[in-house]
Each structure stands twice: as structure tokens, then as C-alpha cells.
Amino acid sequence: MDALITVLPGDGIGPEVASAGVSVLEQIAQLYGHKFEFSEQLIGGAGIDAENDPCPANTRASCKESDAILLGAVGGPKWSDPNASIRPEQGILALRAELQVFANLRPVNTMDELAEASPIKTDRLKGVDIMVVRELTGGIYFGEKTRDQDSATDLCTYHRYEVERIIRVAATLAQQRRGILCSVDKANVLETSRLWRDVTTTTLAAEFPDLDSEHMLVDAAAMHLINRPSSFDVIVTENMFGDILTDEASMLAGSLGMLPSASLGESTRGLYEPIHGSAPDIAGKGLANPCGTIASAAMLLRHSLNLDEEAAKIEAAIHATIAAGVRTADIAGDSGHYVTTEEMTQAIIQRLQ
Ligand code: NAD
Question: Which CATH architecture has domain 1-101+258-353?
Fold first, then answer.
């Protein structure tokens, strides 16, 4: 298989983890006889520094020509002036909107071997296997913003079609999994959530009558995620709630650095990135956990290139590496023994062979 993949390293630890993802994809190409061509482009702060644009024209063009996009992370103190009109995060939001990748899939799994890395009691972590489906191109992150000296507003808008299409994605995934769907909203307070709940109820009744579904308020969901995480199968929610709940859920897996994501639209072209940010506190030190990005590369193979066997091979190699006791600092616990980003990547590549 021939494929063109745009790589957007970004800022902070972004380049370190993106490079790990590319190394693993190169190894897969070699093992299976595929030809992956990589086009590296600017995003975020790197785009601002070079072209005064967090999502330069070349980046957009390359992404649109590609079969898939692998992104590291953006942002950092250098570009965090609250009065700045151009910010790194605008690059990712622009890209998500332009590529119309409205469905962000964030799998959250626990590994027994990492139970010690989690602050949650071990007995709660058994059998956790959740797919969070986050709406990605609507809601408060994309609404009109105003600001004066003493007040500020962020508009949150959802349209019926936006809710319908994300519910269809989540319900279809639930059908392929354990058949349980939890839709998370804040319908007791927000009008957008009341629309969300109405559309969800109607869509599920008409198109997915056999699914075991429920509505849950986001505050209760935040609590149940910690209290009884293994009871969830697919969670579907709007943009900001999904962003926050998945950072919380990452503590089940042991570290923010473990979780991958796939952002998908109507076509097979997808945007793949770890759920963490640019982690400026550890950038350039070889401390970044590359597992989330490497697992994102596996999702890229599965969802954009239809290479299921290769994707499963990467996921098995990550698991085998963790099972063998190899740890980056964030998941090392009290042992004090850990390897660098590059060593973790090589340990995973070794287990692909
Ligand atoms: P963050 O996710 O970058 O880091 C939070 C904490 O988790 C830090 O202590 C960090 O060291 C740790 N961490 C994150 N990824 C890790 C990894 N792979 N391995 C080991 N430890 C890891 O969140 P933050 O510190 O709140 O934000 C830093 C910058 O990232 C900000 O500018 C923010 O806007 C940006 N951000 C970008 C994205 C994105 O690119 N998609 C997402 C979230 C935040």
C-alpha cells in the first residue's frame, strides 16, 4: 500500500513524540512492504515563529492531499501572552474545521501492569475499556468570542445535524462493541444540552432501537468515571465536556501520555494525535511518553489506511513493552527506573519484529 502522511510535530514535546510515531510507521512499512511517504509541515507555535500563522497555507494544502495526518502537540509559554491575537491552539482548531473531522475517538483502556501508575484504586481499574466519542468541530470552542475590560463571552452553538452525525458515529461504534451508549450533557442548565438530549433520543429511537442507552449529566459522569469506570462502553459528548472528561479518564490508564486519538469526518482521511498537550515542563529532556502518539499511529493505520493487522501489531507491541517493565518517567511510579522517549520507542519497535 502507498500512502502520503502529513506529519505536524508542533511544539514542546510534540516533535519528540511525533518522531516516535514516524519511526514506528517506518518500521511497519518495512515489515509489511508498504510505501509511506511523510511530508513534515508546520503547526502551532512553530508556524507562528516561521510564518506568523499557526496553520500555514502549505500545511493546509499538504493535509488535504494526504491520506492521513499525524500531529504531535502545540502550545507553550512562548506564545501564551493572553493579549496575543494569534495563538498556537488556533492552528489545530483551524485544521479540525477545515478537514471537517467532527468525530474525535478517544479509547481509554487500562493495563493491569500499569495499575500502580494510576492514582485510582486497583480494583476499580479492572476491565476498563471505554471509547469516548467527542464532538470536535462545534460548541463553545468554535463560537464567537467577545472581550472588553470587565466582561467576556464565549458562544456555544450546536445544530441538529451536528448532534445527529456524532450520535450515529458513537452508536455505530457501540453496536460493534458491548452495545452500551452513554450520552453526556448538562441538560439541566444548558439549552445546547437540551437540544443534544432531544436529538440523541430521537436518533437512537429511530435508528438504533436495540442499543442500551442512557443520558448522564456531565458532573455525574465525572464522578462515575472514577467510581465505576468499567461500567462504561461508549461515551458520546460535546466538544468541551469530551476534552475535560478524557484528561480525567487518562488517570485510569496511568498517564496522559498513554492515550491516543483519531479525528474523523466523512472521508477516510483522519487526523491522529495523542490527547496530551505540548508539556513544556518536560520538553527537550527525553521524558515524554511516546505511547499515546504511537497508539495514534496504530489508529491511523486502522481508520485511514484500513490496515487492521498492522494496527493490532503496534498495539500488541506497546502492551508487550509495558508488560516487560519498560517505563517512561510518567509511569515509572516510585521505582525511579525509567527510560527515555527514544529508548521506549526502540523497545516498542523491537517488539514489532
Ligand atoms: P499538557 O497535556 O501539555 O501537560 C499536562 C501534564 O501532563 C504535564 O505535567 C506534562 O508534563 C504531562 N504530560 C503530558 N503529556 C505527557 C507525555 N507524553 N509524557 C509524559 N508526561 C506528559 O497540558 P498543559 O501543561 O496544561 O498544557 C501545555 C500546553 O499544551 C499549553 O500551551 C496548552 O494550550 C497546550 N495543549 C495542546 C494540546 C494539543 O496540542 N492538542 C492539548 C492540550 C493542551
Answer: 3-Layer(aba) Sandwich (3.40)
pLDDT digits (tens, 9 = 90+) for 312-322: 999 999 999 99
282 Rama class: left (phi>0) / alpha (psi -120 to 50) / beta: alpha
- Which residue has its alpha carbon closest to ligand 1 atom 38? 277
Question: Which ranges in the chain are annotated with CATH 3.40.718.10?
Answer: 1-101+258-353, 119-253
Residues 44-83 have pLDDT tens digits of 999 999 999 999 999 999 999 999 999 999 999 999 988 8
Say if ligand 1 is within 6 A of residue 282 CB: yes
281 CB within 6 A, ligand 1? yes
Superfamily for 119-253? Isopropylmalate Dehydrogenase (3.40.718.10)
How many Cα atoms sit within 13 Å of 182 on the Cβ side? 21
Whether 304 and 135 have beta carbons less than 8 Å apart is answered as no
Q: Which of 55, 278, 282, 318 to mutate to test the pocket of ligand 1 (most atoms within 8 A of CB)?
A: 278
User: pLDDT tens for residues 10-36?
Assistant: 999 999 999 999 999 999 999 999 999
